[in-house]
Write a structure and sequence with these properties.
Helix content is 29%, strand content 18%. It is an alpha/beta fold. It folds into three domains: 3-262, Aconitase, domain 3, CATH 3.30.499.10; 266-403, 2-Layer Sandwich (Aconitase, domain 3); 441-595, Aconitase, domain 4 (Alpha-Beta Barrel).
Length: 600
């Protein structure tokens, strides 16, 4: 039997399997991440399912291990509660990448099985184990039953022959293989790698190569562990590993012989991990940022290579270098060896362990037209942000960060280059007449929200602070104010908001004013305002006025009454009740800015 056939046989009752068989496979480690974990829990709860074996069931919070995104933070806490109630181990935001935890902690051993909501769970091939990424329903089923159905794949073998060039990293190896096989020639296959050069590969190098099996379309890229790998695993986890190897007379659909001596330093061009080319073909391409990390290249050997290149040097002006170790154990080792100090002296940002920008979280994202060189495994459009991403080895990424352009550091004599020019910012076209008819008297429905200290997070929550377009802000007005979460849906053009003391307390965010402008609220009345909020509102030409507490009673004001507000006279009338009273009018600078359409 091949490696995959042996592993599946050993986990499906012991009866030998062959390609095409569909069997139920016992899963040794069953993982849900913060990405998808909450949906796994929801599936279990909604279907009334219980856990098969809590000791084999884990959460790993690695896609946003800073909890910086409100949705991720909510999902993480939801999963923590479920874990506490069911006795599950959580590898929380201080741990690092879940698949690496599985290897380091011995959750899966050679010959074992793992499933995860991580599409790169097949990284287990690095230790001769079977790993598979799954969707939320699949994982929920495995948590409940302990097994998953699989179709036994065909196996092929890649034999790497010849001498590996000294400057060719493990990342270069897999990028060269991607250039040869593309994204679909190995589709749905289990791939075993052999050869003298393979035997010499370290655990970290095998992890790098296996982590890109998904990008090659393969079910898994499998390495047969040798004694060096067994020793490395036992040192990490303290657990003795069982031995596993394919039979010498195993049947393979095809065997490929690849001359490794012809491999060159490679990059994957933006958009496709399989669009690979020699680094020399894109030499001097200017970059804005570099990212070193991910499940592909966040290991200790990678970090040492980067430190050796950065030591005593500075990242090019205008270039941002972001470094994210794969696990906390690696982070701590890098700290103990002085690597973190080298990175910081070079001007790099070092984040806590995790996936980095790969999963659209944590650190490593890029903006529109930003050019990034990354050690990640994917550079699909939008995967790491809105810019363009070149994939490369840690050495190429580090050299490029120093130079300001893509380079492998060989024969580079130029001085560092400033970052790429990127996008051209275009000013908004201004309508010169739009502010010439500003109304100084307005009418609208009254919203009585008579609460003190309504802060800017209640008005416009910080999870929306990246929004810059006025048209997008309206929908989030008051969505964090208890009892008024649906305000934006009910509000009408011209409405008048009447509130109490210290309205707009808190942060300096302009959106807490602009959201009312976007909704078409005609004015806001309050007993008093937060100092920054008052300035922001006046400068944005949002009419705000103050009143004394007797106003509500004098007008017999109720929600929905129609009111008229005269900004200059300082007068408010309840048209529904025929009552009028005084408020504080605009003061001169407020009128001047309002009629100007705003400070700018």
């Amino acid at each position: 039997m091949t490696l995959i056939e042996k592993i599946i046989t050993n986990h499906s009752g012991g009866k030998p399997v062959k390609p095409g068989d569909i069997v139920d496979v016992e899963i040794d480690a069953r993982i849900a991440r913060d990405f998808g974990g909450a949906n796994v829990v929801k599936n279990l709860i909604d279907k009334g399912l219980s856990l098969d074996d809590p000791s084999k069931t884990f959460f790993t919070f690695d896609t946003n291990p800073t909890g910086s995104d409100q949705k991720y933070a909510s999902n993480q806490q939801y999963c923590r509660i479920f874990a506490r109630e069911n006795g599950l181990k959580v590898y929380d935001i201080d741990s690092g990448i879940g698949t690496h935890q599985a290897i380091e902690k011995g959750l899966v051993l050679p010959g074992g099985t793992l499933v995860s909501t991580d599409s790169h769970a097949n990284i287990m091939g690095a230790i001769g184990a079977f790993g598979q990424g799954m969707g939320d329903q699949d994982i929920a089923a495995v948590w409940a039953k302990g097994k998953a159905w699989f179709k036994v794949p065909e196996s092929v073998k890649i034999i790497l022959e010849g001498q590996r060039p000294t400057n060719i990293s493990a990342k270069d190896v897999v990028l060269n293989l991607l250039q040869i096989f593309g994204a679909n020639k190995l589709l749905g296959l289990s791939v075993e790698l052999e050869g003298e050069a393979v035997e010499q590969m370290s655990l970290d190098e095998r992890i790098t190569i296996s982590s890109m099996g998904t990008e090659m379309g393969a079910i898994i890229l499998l390495f047969t562990p040798n004694e060096n790998i067994y020793n490395a695993l036992e040192k990490l986890s303290g657990v003795k590993s069982p031995r596993i190897a394919a039979d010498k007379d195993a049947n393979y659909q095809e065997i490929f012989h690849i001359d490794m001596s012809k491999f060159v330093t490679m990059v994957a061009r933006p958009g496709h991990p399989h669009d690979d080319a020699p680094v020399r073909s894109v030499l001097k391409t200017k970059i804005d940022s570099a990212f070193i990390g991910s499940c592909t290249n966040g290991r200790m050997e990678d970090l040492r290579i980067v430190a050796e290149i950065l030591k005593g040097k500075k990242v090019a002006e205008g270039v941002v270098l972001k470094i994210v170790p794969a696990t906390d154990a690696i982070w701590q080792e890098a700290l103990n060896e002085g690597l973190i100090h080298i990175y910081k002296q070079a001007g790099a940002l070092v984040s806590n362990a995790g996936c980095g920008g790969c999963a659209a979280g944590q650190v490593g994202q890029n903006g529109p037209d930003e050019i990034t060189i990354s050690t990640g495994n994917r550079n699909f459009s939008g995967k790491q942000g809105k810019g363009e991403v070149y994939l490369a080895s840690p050495a190429v990424a580090a050299h490029s960060a120093l130079a300001g352009y893509i380079t492998d550091g060989i024969q580079v004599t130029d001085t560092p280059t400033f970052a790429s020019k990127g996008m051209k910012l275009k000013p908004k076209e201004i309508n010169k007449t739009e502010n010439t008819h500003k109304a100084l008297v307005v009418e609208g429905r009254a919203w009585l929200i008579l609460k003190d200290d309504i802060d800017t997070d209640m008005i416009f929550h910080n999870r929306y602070l990246t929004i810059t377009e006025l048209s997008e802000m309206a929908q989030y007005t008051f969505d964090n104010l208890k009892g008024y979460e649906d305000f934006a849906k009910k509000a009408q053009e011209g409405d008048v908001v009447i509130t109490a003391k210290n309205f707009g307390a808190g942060s300096s965010r302009q959106q807490a004013v602009d959201c009312f402008l976007a909704l078409g609220v005609s004015c806001i009345l309050a007993e008093s305002y937060g100092a920054i909020y008052e300035r922001n509102a006046i400068n944005a030409a949002m009419p705000i006025l103050t009143y004394n507490p007797q106003m509500i009673e004098a007008l017999e004001l109720k929600n929905g009454d129609r009111v008229r507000v005269d900004f200059m006279k300082g007068e408010i009338s309840n048209l529904s009740k025929g009552k009028t009273t005084q408020i504080n009018p605009f003061y001169p600078v407020q009128k001047e800015i309002y009629l100007n359409g705003g400070l700018l």
